[in-house]
Every structure is written in C-alpha cells, then in structure tokens.
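Hi all, long-time lurker, first post. I run a small reading group and we've been trying to get comfortable going from sequence to structure in the token notation. Rather than ask abstract questions, I figured I'd post a concrete chain and ask someone more experienced to write out its structure so we can walk through it together at our next meeting. Sequence below, copied exactly:
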Amino acid sequence: MFEGTYTALITPFENGKIDYRALEILIEKQIAEGIDGVIPMGTTGESPTVSFEEHKEFIKRVVKIVNGRVKVIAGTGANSTSEAIWLTQGAEDSGVDATLSVNPYYNKPTQRGLIAHYESIAKATKLPIILYNIPGRSGINFLPESVSELLKRTDHVVAMKEASGDIAQMMRLIELCGSRLTLLSGDDNLLLPVLAIGGKGVISVLSNLIPADVKKVVTLYRDNKTEEAAAWFYKILPLCRAMFLETNPIPIKAAMEMTGICSGDMRLPLIPLSDENREKLRKSLVEYGVKLK
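-- Answer (accepted) --
Happy to help. Here is the structure in token form:
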C-alpha cells in the first residue's frame, strides 16, 4: 500500500559531486519527522543530470541509510523503454520497495505506446510501479482511459503520481480505476483538492524542508479532521507557491541551503535562484517560521 506522505528527495551536490553526508542528514530528518517514504532520483533529484553510475549508486546509498525504516521508491523513468527497464531492474537489485516511472519524455508516444511502455517494464520486474503523469515536462498526458486499459494488462501498477494539474482528469481516473489504483498528488499546491476527490497522499517537494507539516495535512484529512487539515494546508500554501518561483528544484535547493542542510549547488542547465526570487523565498521562509542559518 502506497498511501501517505512521500518526499521527492533533492540530490545534494558539493563541488560538482554528490554530497552523501548531506544526503544522510536529509534522510534522517525525514524519518525523524515521520515521513512515510522517500523517493530518490525523481524530477526533484535532478535525475536527468546524473550519470547511470551515479543514479544506481545514489539509490543504493538511500536504501542503506533508510535501512527498512520507511519505504524507498526509486525514480527509474526514461524515454527509452529498455533504459527504464535497466534502471528498474537495478533498483530492484538494490532492495527498493517500488519504482516511480515518469511518462517517456521528448519522443511523445501515442496512448497505445504509453501502455506498451509500462506493460514492458511491468513484465521485467516484480516491483510495484507508481506511474508519474506530468505532461508539462514529458510532453505527453497519460489519459485515464489508457491507465485503465494498462491495469487490465498488469497487476504491478499500483498508484499514480498525478501532476497534470487537471482535477477533472484525476476524478475521471478514480472513476475508472477505483481501488485498483492509488492517486497521489504530484503537486503540493493541489494537495488538499486531491485529498478531497479521493487521493490518498502526496509525493512532495516541500517536505524536503518541512516533512512533519506536510504530513500533518494528509494525516488530519485521513482522520476525518477536514477543517484542521484545511487550516494546515492554507498555512503551508504560501511556501508551496514559493517552491515554484522558478523551475523545480531550484527554489527548494535554495531553501535547503538557507536552512543549512546542504549547499544549493545545481548541475547545468539548471542554475541557482535569481537574487530577486531568493529574497522572495527568504521572506516566505521567515514568515512561516523556518529557522535559517
């Protein structure tokens, strides 16, 4: 079961290399504050800019640090099906609990192509697969009717991280797939609406910074304390918006640097937050009460 609050981990860099010391500090913070799981090598982890060797090593290190205390869901998506299978099998060998597989990007497959892509991955692994629908980055939208067809062909697909921004589409997904597929919000800004239509949790960027507070929204809602959940959501909403002042993960990395967790180093073509937006972010953090270094 993949319900609750999961953190899409940043990848800390220092002088161009992965900073595994900072990674351990970050993961221990996540576990101490009650997060349900962590997701290495997703969008927030700058996966397009790491080598295959770094990708596999990073996932191995995360599994070792976590040591079974929470779930580890490895990002293993690619725009080549064979590549995605290779990454998925590598993650399986590392001992992860599930994989997160983004829609193939750039080459814009048809809906039939998307179904064939995920069906091929499912046949190559024993792991549960969480789909990742983010048309703004991948250039293709995995439609509910196609997801429903995929579920008829495999039992391995168990959830979807939905970041299309289209609530009506998410409702259609639940209508067609029901209990066969767990809907997780892929956008912190839409967490409360997604819970309201039947979503079961979130894969969060903001929880890198404030895991306990993001989790509180989900926990309160699941405990039928909807008004309290809404109050907490609106409390964190300004920070949710601040995380998208520029392309993710630029703002969250800047925030983590401001709090002393790690450096804000990025790999090109991503560059650090602009001075103007850095001031806006700092103001949001201070107003929220985040302790800065």
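A couple of things your group might point at:
The chain has a mean pLDDT of 97.
The first strand starts at residue 4 and ends at 8.
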